């Protein structure tokens, strides 16, 4: 089988496998408690050595994404919710609270038929809505927001001016969030994200993956990239 690649730049094979598994989990193709493909299956699919697959799965277990049960298999770990610690806050409000100026640059606002996004929003078919925005504080980029939105929950999303009101503020104003799930990673961005955030080569990001629910609907699926040197996450219990 042809070896898979991610993006335009080649990645180490073990990282390709990690991203493949994470994409399956994010899209909902693999859910908490599901068995992930075996090492043998992944060796065949990616055309790599078993030790490469073993490293990928081992790192995902160390990150709390997977659990291995001896004699049974490797499973997607249960999701952990920390809404009491990590609150969903409007970045414009956070910046204003520091006495600074917020600005948003909208890179894209469009309908999308991305199959992973449709699956993450738990919809049977597209299109879904997609926005890409760079948020800046005093002229310095501090967040790249890559958001998919359920059109059944926010049908007028594409008609909004997100340089005036952030997506978060707009959506919470219309339909307060009932539930959220988070995952946070330290990860190097690709060249595109690095350019948007005006980062040095090799500088890591804090990457927050988040889905939110309004009623029984998955309302949004978003990736938030933050330069580690200019941003931190904090909360209180």
From TrEMBL:
<keyword id="KW-0238">DNA-binding</keyword>
<dbReference type="GO" id="GO:0006547">
    <property type="term" value="P:L-histidine metabolic process"/>
</dbReference>
<dbReference type="InterPro" id="IPR036388">
    <property type="entry name" value="WH-like_DNA-bd_sf"/>
</dbReference>
<dbReference type="GO" id="GO:0045892">
    <property type="term" value="P:negative regulation of DNA-templated transcription"/>
</dbReference>
<protein>
    <recommendedName>
        <fullName>Histidine utilization repressor</fullName>
    </recommendedName>
</protein>
<dbReference type="InterPro" id="IPR000524">
    <property type="entry name" value="Tscrpt_reg_HTH_GntR"/>
</dbReference>
<dbReference type="GO" id="GO:0003677">
    <property type="term" value="F:DNA binding"/>
</dbReference>
<dbReference type="GO" id="GO:0003700">
    <property type="term" value="F:DNA-binding transcription factor activity"/>
</dbReference>
<dbReference type="InterPro" id="IPR011663">
    <property type="entry name" value="UTRA"/>
</dbReference>
<dbReference type="InterPro" id="IPR050679">
    <property type="entry name" value="Bact_HTH_transcr_reg"/>
</dbReference>
<dbReference type="InterPro" id="IPR036390">
    <property type="entry name" value="WH_DNA-bd_sf"/>
</dbReference>
<keyword id="KW-0805">Transcription regulation</keyword>
<dbReference type="InterPro" id="IPR028978">
    <property type="entry name" value="Chorismate_lyase_/UTRA_dom_sf"/>
</dbReference>
<keyword id="KW-0804">Transcription</keyword>
<dbReference type="Pfam" id="PF00392">
    <property type="entry name" value="GntR"/>
</dbReference>
<feature type="domain" description="HTH gntR-type">
    <location>
        <begin position="11"/>
        <end position="79"/>
    </location>
</feature>
<dbReference type="Pfam" id="PF07702">
    <property type="entry name" value="UTRA"/>
</dbReference>
<dbReference type="InterPro" id="IPR010248">
    <property type="entry name" value="His_ut_repres"/>
</dbReference>
């Amino acid at each position: 089988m042809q070896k898979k690649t991610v993006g335009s730049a080649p990645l180490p094979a073990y990282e390709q496998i990690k991203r493949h598994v994470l994409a399956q989990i994010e899209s909902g193709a693999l859910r908490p408690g599901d068995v992930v493909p075996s090492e043998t299956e992944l060796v065949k699919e990616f055309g790599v050595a078993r030790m490469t697959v073993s490293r990928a799965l081992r790192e995902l277990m160390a990150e709390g994404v997977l659990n291995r049960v001896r004699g049974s298999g490797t499973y997607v770990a249960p999701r952990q919710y920390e809404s009491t610690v990590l609150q969903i806050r409007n970045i414009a409000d956070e910046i204003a609270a520091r006495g600074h100026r917020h600005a948003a640059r909208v890179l894209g606002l469009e309908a999308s038929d991305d199959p992973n996004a449709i699956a993450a929003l738990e919809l049977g078919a597209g299109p879904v809505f997609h926005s890409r925005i760079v948020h800046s504080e005093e002229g310095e980029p501090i967040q790249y927001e890559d958001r998919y939105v359920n059109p059944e929950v926010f049908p007028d999303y594409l008609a909004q001016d997100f340089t005036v009101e952030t997506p978060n503020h707009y959506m919470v104003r219309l339909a307060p969030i009932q539930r959220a799930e988070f995952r946070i990673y330290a990860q190097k961005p690709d060249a595109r994200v690095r350019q948007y955030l005006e980062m040095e080569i090799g500088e890591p990001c804090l990457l927050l993956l988040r889905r939110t629910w309004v009623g029984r609907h998955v309302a949004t699926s978003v990736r938030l990239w933050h330069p580690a040197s200019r941003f931190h996450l904090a909360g209180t219990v």
